[in-house]
Amino acid sequence: ERAARYNQLFEPLAGLVQTPYEPSWSRAVYHLYVVRVPERDELIRHLSERQIGSGIHYPVPLHLQQAYAPLGYRRGDFPVSETVCAQVVSLPLYPQIRMDQQQTVAREVARLVTAKASTARP
Predict the structure, then answer these.
(1) Residue 103: how many CA atoms within 13 Å on its side-chain side?
(2) Helix, coil or strand: residue 34
(3) Given CB 3.0 to 4.6 Å as the disulfide criterion, which of 25, 61, 72, 102 pairs with 81?
(4) pTM higher than 0.85, yes or no?
């Protein structure tokens, strides 16, 4: 399975790339493979420069959606949701994706997040 392959490829990056959580009592469909990284926008640029597509499928937290404006929520009311929305990115995942393509995606993600982590250390 392609999502499981990504999970394995990202295991060495635990703490740098947060992969989807799948409880033991369920099985996800994975129409998207969404990871969390603090440097999301830089990662998207990095991947794009290497002709690797990515996406932001949930850019606005629910409480800030226009449809919920009448409820009166403001930025800062749900800080965890706002942080997550600023960090999530969907990586390429489709039925025909090959192992070597997933390895390339994982390698490029690793290249950026490890470089950022090494420059962040004192």
Answers:
(1) 3
(2) strand
(3) 61
(4) yes
Q: pLDDT of 19-76, one tens digit each?
A: 999 999 998 899 999 999 999 999 999 999 999 999 999 899 999 999 999 999 999 9
Q: How far apart are CA 92 and CA 51, in angstroms?
A: 11
First and final C-alpha spacing in the chain: 39
- Residue 74: both structure tokens together: 């403001």
**DSSP H stretches of helix in 11-122:** 40-49, 79-87, 99-120
Reported as type and span, the H/E element at residue 36 is: strand 33-36
Do 54 and 47 contact (CB within 8 A), yes or no? yes
